[in-house]
Design brief:
Shape: globular
Radius of gyration: 19 Å
Strand content: 15-25%
Structural class: alpha/beta
Helix content: 40-55%
Strand order of the largest sheet: 1-2-4-5-6-7-8-9
Bound molecules: guanosine-5'-monophosphate, manganese (II) ion
Largest sheet: 8 strands, mixed, barrel
Distance between the termini: 74 Å
Order of helices and strands: HEEEHEHHEHEHEHHEHEEH
């Protein structure tokens, strides 16, 4: 009998083990934090919502995005909703809270019940919760379709994250009920220098408008990019030009600042 020892495989398994163990400890020690990046409505200059982003600084693995680890996703969704409800008491006017849901979790049997429980326990308005999913789950796989259906029954909003860079199946957009498209930063990076990119963004915005999806543009870093995006009819913008992700204790201050500006 022969056995092949694959160094790369065991290294990956070891990394995974180390990371999951670290994440468990991080939850216990509460080293894992959420930061919130504002999304601005360019027509009214008001806050459309926030995207909750997890930050975890591991001593030996560095800054890691922990979104693949299911107990972490559950924790993130719960915390983000609880925060949204608390901030809404202060802010009065409505805003949305977006959380990233990994494709792996999207098909986990615990996902829909957990989202339902989170809405019930935190009291967030279902439509104020936006689940961001990447294009890979927007396919006409029957399992995905039934999850989309259940989420729609709960009343939560769904955004297609990183739109345009993955497998965009236009056919599946025909079957699925989506609320927002998030146009990926990849396009915004070149919107000033590449006319083709500008046409692509224009087309995505028009597609969204015809389908009655909200359009969120990610990764806007400069005034010049914003000017072009406004010309193209873009509605909601997220990016360093407006704000980097903010720590939770500074969010109320941010609400006040925006109110003063308007
Ligand atoms: O689409 P996704 O959820 O993967 O993107 C969120 C990530 O993009 C976050 O890590 C956030 O910090 C980052 N991000 C948001 N706006 C900007 C920006 O304007 N510039 C850059 N470089 N990164 C951004
Ligand atoms: Mn996202």
């Amino acid at each position: 009998q022969y056995a092949f020892y694959q160094v790369e495989l065991s290294r990956r398994a070891e990394y995974r083990f180390k990371m999951e163990q670290g994440l468990r400890e991080a939850i216990e020690k509460e080293e894992l934090t959420l930061v919130y990046q504002p999304q601005i409505d360019v027509h009214t200059n008001e806050i459309f919502g926030f995207e909750a982003l997890a930050r975890w600084n591991h001593t030996s693995l560095g800054a890691i995005s922990p979104i693949e680890f299911i107990p972490i996703i559950e924790r993130i969704v719960f915390t983000a909703c609880k925060q949204a409800v608390a901030w809404k008491k202060f802010n009065k006017s409505a805003f949305k809270m977006s959380v990233n849901i990994s494709p792996k979790y999207f098909l986990d049997k615990e996902m829909v019940p957990l989202i339902k429980e989170t809405i019930d326990v935190t009291g967030i308005l279902a439509s104020d919760l936006v689940l961001e999913v990447t294009e890979s789950v927007v396919q006409t796989d029957t399992r995905n379709l039934s999850v989309f259906q259940s989420l729609k029954e709960l009343g939560v909003s769904i955004a297609i994250d990183d739109f345009g860079i993955g497998y965009s199946s236009f056919a599946s957009l025909k079957h699925l009920t989506v609320d927002h498209l998030k146009i990926d930063k990849y396009f915004i990076d070149e919107i000033l220098t590449d006319l083709k990119v500008r046409f692509l963004v224009k087309s995505m915005i028009e597609l969204g408008q015809h389908m009655e999806y909200g359009i969120v543009v990610e990764g806007v870093e400069t005034k010049e990019q914003l000017v072009v995006l406004e010309e193209l009819g873009c509605e909601i913008v997220q990016g360093y030009f407006f704000s980097k992700p903010i720590e939770s204790e500074n969010v109320l201050e941010y609400f006040s600042k925006i109110k003063e500006e308007n």
